[in-house]
Amino acid sequence: MSATLLGSAIPLAQAYDLALVDLDGVTYKGHEPIEFAAEGLRSARAAGLRLVFVTNNASREPESVSDQLTSLDIPAQPKDVMTAAQACARLLGDHVDPGARVLVVGGAGLVTAVTEAGYVVVQSADDAPDAVAQGFAPSLGWADLAEAAYAVAGGAVHVVSNLDLSLPTARGFAPGNGALVGAVVAATGVQPFSAGKPSPAMYAMAIERAGASRPLVVGDRLDTDLAGARAGGYPGLHVLTGVNSARDDILAHPGERPDFIGADLRSLLVPHTAPTAAAGGWWECDGSAARVTGGRLEVREGAPDADPVDLVRAACAAAWAFTDAGGVVDPTTVPDLAV
């Protein structure tokens, strides 16, 4: 499977009718705003782009998320939020019947979603749950993970909100739900069913609810946000404000590659130039260029006032074309391109 960057002659906010926007690492980090996020999203809305915030975080209620967004000058309502807790509750229906007993290991958002889906929430493995629903919450401890392990070892189906190994915060990256799920898997040897990205299920739910026909996924993680976009066949914009970097884009596997790359959410407001092949094996993008020779990436910067993301785009095109033709790019030749 190959994948390459797309171009758009008009701003993305006009080319698409719905943006499926990730939260952590895209609109905020922890409780801190991300620079230009509010400006970019407000202007995109003014241009006619609808927004649904789609997050792998299952610990919070949609109302709590929308309140935080509004406090960061990004007006939102609960209906604008789609959480992995909601997707997890829906996934439970593939494995247990309504009315089944479910041990919830997670935050209030997951408890609410499971309850509203018609299941009976129990507190202990001793309550003989039919399933365990696990999602991230900063308050989770050893006792919670142990209870989940006892239930899964006893035969309960293990359904989790997501498998993100890390979580971006204002202080750096902290263990995510995937790390906590790993503790239960280590104790039981049972692999769980995951509802969150990179499964495209949440995207499909949000698109159906919005009645959109031209959706765009916006995220910061290649292995969840953009992999989910690829899996669902939706175009994806990678903004370089969170987990993955421009260097990661260049070295990305086909199933995790973005269709568009932007420094931040203001990239919704501008056209995007697609790289084109040129003489000598070079790939060019608005004056910046890159090529791979003998497995080594070479880059050529454009004019001093050139958009630094154009060099990233050219480098992606060169590296991806070389890789898709069977070559191997030497990662030591791929620089950390500043944007």
UniProtKB/TrEMBL annotation:
Lineage: Bacteria, Bacillati, Actinomycetota, Actinomycetes, Micrococcales
Species this chain originates from: Sanguibacter gelidistatuariae
Domain of life, per lineage: Bacteria
Gene3D superfamilies, alphabetized: HAD superfamily/HAD-like (3.40.50.1000)
NCBIfam families linked to this entry: HAD-SF-IIA
Alphabetized GO MF terms: phosphatase activity
One term under GO cellular component: cytoplasm
Domain annotation GCN5-related N-acetyltransferase-like: ranges: 285-328
Protein name, as recorded: Haloacid Dehalogenase Superfamily Class (Subfamily) IIA
InterPro entries (alphabetical): GNAT-like (IPR041065), HAD-like_sf (IPR036412), HAD-SF_hydro_IIA (IPR006357), HAD_sf (IPR023214)
